[in-house]
Amino acid sequence: MKRFFDPRQLAHAPLKELHNGGFTDFAEKPMRAEAILAAIGGADLPADHGEAAISAVHDAGYLDFLKTGPARWAAAGRPGDVIGYIWPIARRRPLKLDRIDALAGRYSLDASTPLTAETWDAAYWSAQSVLSALDAVLAGDHAAFALCRPPGHHAGADYLGGYCYLNTAAIAAQAARDAGAKRVAILDIDYHHGNGTQDIFWTRSDVFYASIHADPATDYPFFWGHADETGEGHGAGTTLNLPLAQGADLAAFRAAQTAALDAIARFGPDLLIVSFGADTWEGDPISFFRLATADYTTLARDIAGRGWPTVIAMEGGYAIEALGANVTSLLAGF
Ligand code: Q9C
Ligand code: ZN
Q: Is the ipTM of this complex over 0.90?
């Protein structure tokens, strides 16, 4: 299977995140990508597709914030990485504010996703990696892997969050539509609900979003991913959320995934995008499911058995010592 990664994706390395009331070392470390790369035996460089496919999903003001935010933060005399600390909750008017502090709140979901001077370039190449994986699948490969890092599924059209800046799965889904695919499905099997992906396609009938994740009653991102969220307008019925209780093992996860695949089959996609997080692994330091390394091959075989051309985009997974083996196990099933 073709695999894509650009070394420029490593340059993004925020120092700290706000976690459970204190600043801890940023969990989404460059070493994650290095561990995966070593385990899969390297990857090809993506082609540069430019910014059009990114702008097709993300808001122009938000992209400008990603590019210029760090310099504006420094110009305001702030040390460290850009981190929002005030958010415009729903009752506030949309204001055209220019202050970097206001922009950091306007364009972010949480305080665990710092923006650094290297972030834009790394996220840009993460998006190019998924676009190159899509190229391979559109050219006839049955599956391709994009080592996306930073990850993508928590990023919305106009906000960062959950270690994500550009929504790689959404960028690939939209690019597939623009390349002529009539219907695209996204299967999100990261431990966390992909709130950004859900938001982006919430009112769309041409992109189906199915997610299996820890119940947002107990887990991040709390405000998205509940079972009664099914889409609205033209998108009514094209979002499927299957939350599972903490402690879920292969039997529970596989049953939910089969239900998701059955729903996707009824939708009838031309192409599937898998948002894959290895944070469902039993030893993940910030997550609480109980999948074993070998289970990823089982889950991947179930997906591959449906026969849809498949782009796999890397999302989370924070147990660096097991990350390479977990990704290798998943790819073995395709
Ligand atoms: N104390 C991904 O897996 N941190 N993002 C939650 C809880 C955010 C994970 C803090 C977790 C985001 C791509
Ligand atoms: Zn996750």
A: yes
